[in-house]
């Protein structure tokens, strides 16, 4: 505006718009009911006779994300475990890794520059893929049930393919030639040793 002072006009030029609030990303912990008790107190017999205020304090409504993660991991484990005492099978390990991976994915959506947690997530994904690949080879029905219960879309790794170059072809030909020459030398040594054994055997018979 022409009536404004030069200082005010310069200040308007440096003004920044208010930052937009980021939308809350949906979490895999949202389906946990707030009235559900924490993992450490869920199986205590005394919880049936305590006051409602105590139950609310010990419920997920007042719990941290770490305590919610324990409950969510336990739910995923219960879906795929073979027996009530099964705590170390491949299916249980896949369920634990799945809960960890989904939590790290949500964290990286809010903090995309967190390289440390991104590395941890990639390591967990690679480990889970190896476990699922083993289950797929050994017990396909268990593999299918695990993927269905945990809602995992498994894609087998692509076969490794090397780009053929002139240098690689020359190196391969040299390695094959060296291998064949070494096999010839070993064959000559073995033939010499066999003839010596035969000569000793004839001498012993005579």
From TrEMBL:
One of the record's GO cellular component terms: mitochondrial small ribosomal subunit
This protein's record includes keyword Transit peptide: yes
Record carries keyword Zinc: no
UniProt-annotated stretches for the region Disordered: 1-33
Matching Pfam families: Ribosomal_S15
InterPro entries hit by this protein: Ribosomal_uS15 (IPR000589), Ribosomal_uS15_bac-type (IPR005290), uS15_NS1_RNA-bd_sf (IPR009068), uS15_ribosomal (IPR052137)
A single GO molecular function term of this UniProt record: structural constituent of ribosome
Basic and acidic residues composition bias: residue spans: 24-33
Coiled coil: none
Cellular location(s): Mitochondrion
SMART domains reported in the protein's UniProt record: Ribosomal_S15 (SM01387)
GO BP, one annotated term: mitochondrial translation
Keywords for the protein's UniProt record, in alphabetical order: Mitochondrion, Ribonucleoprotein, Ribosomal protein, Transit peptide
Family: Belongs to the universal ribosomal protein uS15 family.
Protein name listed in UniProt: Small ribosomal subunit protein uS15m
